[in-house]
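Example 3.2
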Amino acid sequence: MKLIDCHTHLHDFEDVEISKVILRANQAKVVAIITAGTTIESSVKAIDLSKRYPQVFPGVGVHPNELHTDFSEESVNRVLELASLDEVVMISEIGLDFMESSPDRAVQYKAFRSQIGIARELSLPIVFHCREAYHDVVRILKEERAFEVGGAMHYFQGDQLIANQLIDLGFYISLGRPLLRMPDLQKVALNVPINRILLETDSFPQPFKKNRDNWTEPRHVADVATEVAHIKGVNVATVAKITSNNALRMLQNTLLLKTYFQSIPL
């Protein structure tokens, strides 16, 4: 059994912790981890981390909640420069966030559209954030022809209508630990074809949790796989195989991950 964690922020962990986090992931059969930047600086960190650990693969992008100033032409060029590197497998984390405290929506729209454009230019998939902005995200995906490169909505917690719209556009539904505790999400997952599901943890340092053992890590993607297996009425090995193949299909233009994944024995 081999699992892929399709979305983390592993590079944000302290250096002294990262090797231990990866070891625990490997013990849980999570053999590949994608770490997504949220700023130019963290995207550089994600790339650097991938050079140190063969099982780590970077995404680059600017998160909507990091858009404290206008998304300038310089920012576009810097994302393009980083995304052009051989190590990079996707444009992520990008998207829209319409919480009351989030940055100006006009800036978010501009950054989302620009980064989709970079993805299309480089034939890289996008893995995107969405909070309180489902209809706007779907609209922009259509308008910017993001379906030409594909990708996934990460940490999906939307309803069946949104899931169906994304699937119709050719995108994947990426599920994390909320699946273990949200009955409504479990119902959506039941109706999402398993060949459109990805697994993730969205793991990042969580010092607000008093017990370090309770921090979400890539190893917990195995728990998500177990829950999907329960919902779908299949075994975990089947979920691992199908969801990993889904991830590889999404990343079909980035041979680095596929070659690495195939080199790992079952």
